[in-house]
Amino acid sequence: MPVYVVTGTNRGIGLEFIRQLSQDHANIVIACVRSPTSDVGNLQSVIDESKNHNAIILDCDISLAESINRFVETLGMQKILVDQKVDFLIHNAALNLKPEMNSLNLEPDLVHQMITANVLGPALLNSALLTAKLLSPKVRIFHISSGLGSMAVSLDHKPRQSAGYSISKAALNMLAVHQAEDIKSHLPGAVVALVDPGWGKTDMGGENAIYEPSESVGNMLKIRTT
């Protein structure tokens, strides 16, 4: 039974990942949310409707190292993971604070929060799972990036907005490049990939976006075993 861990699952793309993955009862699905006080009503409904008893919700705030470490410890104690390791790790959780910020009015505190969540969080979670020996030998790690993290795309984006988010996603892209090599030194069969979900109709993407979440996630899942 393949084991999936997905971060940021209480809405949008993350919620749709859980919806599609939990439909297959051969999957063990770990849906991560920021805290016990997160709004998980929709997420719980998706899991209940799937009738997948191997789909569970665990707390993991990727902005906090202690929360990440606590999540990894809790994950290792789950009965459904006996003799199992994480086969697919999908880093979906991210922050886009004050999209109207540009490079001339960056707010350091907000940019720091986005770098912490969007870059350091995935880095620390990978390291913690690797140290705990919870990653399978052929784990597939997907970082959900964005066209806004691409310098080529950003050059054609006018007016330019979401500067802090763009900077954090560009940093995430470089993190993935390094991880692709570094993780293989421990797990030669591992693959680290960057995936752009496209402009999706989510709370972050807005109603004018192009893709429905179901279409975006369906396309991303097509490459999971490549």
TrEMBL record:
Gene3D superfamilies: NAD(P)-binding Rossmann-like Domain. This is NAD(P)-binding protein. SUPFAM superfamilies: NAD(P)-binding Rossmann-fold domains. Keywords: NADP. It comes from the Eukaryota. It holds the Pfam family adh_short. It comes from Podospora comata.
